[in-house]
Design goal:
This protein has 440 residues and is of the alpha/beta class. Among the domains are: 228 residues, Vaccinia Virus protein VP39 (Rossmann fold, 3-Layer(aba) Sandwich), CATH 3.40.50; 63 residues, no CATH class.
Amino acid sequence: MTKRKADPPTAVAASPPRRGTREVVRIGARVVNVTFIIIVMFAILSLLKLERLARESVQTHNNAIDLPLRRVDGGSSLPSTSSIINRGFNKMNICPSAIKLFANTTELEYAIQKNVHYHQQGGNLHSIEKYLNSHMQSTLDRLGVQFSPKDNLNKPVPNAIEHLKEYYKNNKVSRGGYGQPLPGQLSSPSSSGQIFREALFEKRWINVIEPSTRQRFFAGIGPVGPHCSNPLTFSKATYEEKNLCVEMKSHDGGEENHDEDYITDCHIMSIGSNDQWGFEEEVMSSPKLRGCVTHTFDCTLRNNKPRNKPQNDNVKFYPYCIGSEGEQPSYLPFNQMWSLTQTKQAPKFLKMDVEGFEFDVVLNSILSSDSSIWPEQIMMEIHWATRMVDLAWMPRTRTAAELALFFGVLFNRGGYIIQQTKHFQGCETCLEVSLVKAVC
């Protein structure tokens, strides 16, 4: 009997949970609930942080445009059909098609002025300078170059650039430094002499190495925004994501009728398909684009016949690729491609993913054609590195300065401003860009 009473497993299993046990269970349940809530909150905060970083990356490169802007003539509001911005001896006409995309035309006006400043008044040079200056020390670190002060040549300083700035701040240098040596010595104990000589010109001047990050884009492309008032996103949160703007419809009596908010007599040009038709299918299913016809061009399909093309009269296929005059027969310049569609007006949207060829396509084909057929909006992916072997600049990378020149031509020649950008995690070398023709 003594043994049977002293048997704890049998007694516990047969008896109901004690009060202390129930309390432990309740506490455990609370801990599980709190843990779950913390995990959910952490996930939400992570998403918010990613969104904030995206906004900050755009704001950071916009802040590089910090020189004073010229005042816009004509007050702060724009007429509903067109507007003129003063830029010295010339006038800038805002495209009526662009005004229909933005509820706040003052923001559009200001965005054009920011682009004038960046692409015509030295803002691009200022932005590139700040960008390269910020990577002087990282260049020295990557190449193993150190700086030792003249009073202690055996002890390199942790940051050569900060040390030199502090030294010149506190010490007067004859003739502003002209013809004067550095107050110390640059050396490269861990690198070969050849690397050291290439990193520094005459053992003094730094050939800055640009980082392999998206910062290269934001240093060069110029101002971004404002976002249009009626955006439309396709293939959201994928590598195929495209963002375009649908014009706002005005209704009598001030009441909105969203059933009427769709584009009529609209033509979309899509360059490159790889026999994938997700974009065209989304256009077909979009209520706001039900009046649009998509013209898709691709010369890379076997026998020039798409196998997966939607059977719809509003989706048309052409077995041609975009190129310059005189290339292979299957390559046509932009104006000849568009003439095949037999449409009279310019394309409402141009969608283009050409993996590094966008520089040649825009400069030598689109903007070299008649301005009457330039697209109202361009959705394209740009790259500072590519694997396409037919490109003369492969395998080197495009610099931030080249990006600045490219987008300068888009604005100065074509009148395009960047409405929105989208960076995809895992592709530092590419950036999705949505442009609106704002200046006519």
